[in-house]
Amino acid sequence: WDPWLVAASIGVGIAFAALALETGMRETTFAGRLAAAALLVTAICGHHFTAMGAVTIVADPTVVVSSSAVPPVWLAFAVASASIAILLLSAAALWVDIRDRRKSALEGERLRSLANAAVEGLVVCQGETIVSANDSFLAMVASAGVTGQPLSAFLVHAAASFAEATPPEHPLEAELRAQDGTSFPVEVIMRPLDYAGRPHIAVAIRDLRARRRAERQIQFL
């Protein structure tokens, strides 16, 4: 065996594998994932064929092959059949994965459409962090994106109220702070739920400005 070829095979395998990992983590499109898979295949093939090229196999004439041994043709046929079966199973698993991903994306889009159709603001939080919000909430806070921000950045004193022993779906009143610093009264209802297989909190936020104006008008009358 040639140590330089072995070292080269290891280096090529590591380089292409690292590039495949970096591409797979960065890219989210189908073309990007396909490129990552191609790089990984290149890493495996480069490592395998370079390493095999560094090895020389010489038959030992002193070893007698038994007559009951499996003929090479049948052995090659068995290996080829197993390889084809593995490829077919991999293709079937890939098709199932793509189908499930499309179904999940469709269901997610449907849920987002339903959430955006609501008049009240809807926010899904994991702990204190916002992971999703509908268009009504974004319009309330006058912001294009709130994902990753703490809920307390928008709902003043709401986090402390949630931490208390308040029964679920019990309405609370709080102040909603918009992106420009202004705040106005809102009614908040929270409910625990499972989102993406993990416990989250769904928060419904209702604007109370119209109700407050009506109450002031009634008091004036």
Low-confidence stretches: none
Largest sheet: 6 strands, antiparallel
- How many β-strand runs? 6
Radius of gyration: 31 Å
Tell me the series of helices and strands, N- to C-terminal.
HHHEEHEHEEEH
Number of helices: 6
Percent of residues in beta strands:
15-25%
Quote the distance from N terminus to C terminus. Answer: 99 Å
* Overall average residue pLDDT: 81
Strand order of the largest sheet: 2-1-6-5-4-3
- Helical coverage, percent range: 40-55%
Shape: elongated
The chain-level structural class is: alpha+beta
Q: Which features would summarize this protein structure in a list?
A:
six-stranded antiparallel beta sheet; alpha+beta; elongated; 221 residues; 6 strands; single chain; 6 helices; 19% strand
What can be said about this structure in brief?
This protein has 221 residues and is of the alpha+beta class. The protein contains six helices and six strands.
